[in-house]
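Severity: low
Component: inverse-folding endpoint
Summary: output formatting inconsistent between runs
Steps to reproduce: submit the following structure tokens with default settings.
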């Protein structure tokens, strides 16, 4: 899928815009302790506690090589390590978020933190059994660029699972720019890519991945948001 309105280097622009926003969020974070933190026992796939599948959605993690794309302050990467991953790599485009992740979970074995745009960092990683992302790089960067890189890093039979939002009623799917609001009231642009489950099915297939589960979770506050928690697999034979 191409975006004719984006100049060459659009992906780089997206990553820079989003890194700026999330580095600023990190600088103003009040709720996230920069100190050692408890590892969550389960993966929270949506922003609504108790809604969505748990860590089982990723299949067996013990002994696996896992990467989280857009790991933020690292709790889910740490959770994957606590479930026995041989290697759990947290990737984030915002260095300041990774500094917080290191401070919170750096004491744990099997963890590695990598700063940069997910598509670029992935190319430097070893082959992976599992990739996941929770409102991370699959939400903030162009899937037409990122999915083929993920497919190329996954071993045959490897899993990609991720959460994004579906387009809201009346919203045009595709690239959009929103604003994050800092505690100071300042607004910073972020770039999203929003598609429905059918389009994700096609995007994944174009990248050589087979979608095998799509869980839709509606916002319990009734604000019209719908999270999509998707799982795809690299076929064992291609
Ligand atoms: C909404 S936060 C989600 C953090 C984490 N997944 C969680 O569940 O708490 C989105 C994160 O994605 C990161 N991000 C955005 N674009 C990215 C990209 N192209 N590559 C890697 N990380 C990215 C941001 O810096 C931010 O930390």
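Observed output (run 2 of 3):
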């Amino acid at each position: 899928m191409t975006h004719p309105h984006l100049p060459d280097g659009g992906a780089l622009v997206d990553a820079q815009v989003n890194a700026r926003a999330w580095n600023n969020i990190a600088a103003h974070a009040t709720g996230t302790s920069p100190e050692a933190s408890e590892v969550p026992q389960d993966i929270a796939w949506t922003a609504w506690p108790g809604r969505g599948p748990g860590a089982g959605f990723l299949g067996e993690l013990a002994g696996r090589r896992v990467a989280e794309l857009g790991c933020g302050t690292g709790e889910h990467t740490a959770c994957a390590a606590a479930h026995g991953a041989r290697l759990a790599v947290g990737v984030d485009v915002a260095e300041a978020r990774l500094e917080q992740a290191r401070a919170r979970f750096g004491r744990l074995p099997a963890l590695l933190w990598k700063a940069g745009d997910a598509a670029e960092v992935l190319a430097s990683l070893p082959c992976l059994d599992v990739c996941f992302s929770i409102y991370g790089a699959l939400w903030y960067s162009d899937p037409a660029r990122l999915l083929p890189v993920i497919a190329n890093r996954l071993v045959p039979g490897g899993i990609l699972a991720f959460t994004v939002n579906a387009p809201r009623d009346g919203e045009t799917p595709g690239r959009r720019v929103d604003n994050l609001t800092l505690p100071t009231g300042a607004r910073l642009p972020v770039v999203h890519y929003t598609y429905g489950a059918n389009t994700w099915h096609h995007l994944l297939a174009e990248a050589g991945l087979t979608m095998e589960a799509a869980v839709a979770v509606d916002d319990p506050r009734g604000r019209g948001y719908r999270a999509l928690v998707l799982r795809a697999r690299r076929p064992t034979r291609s």
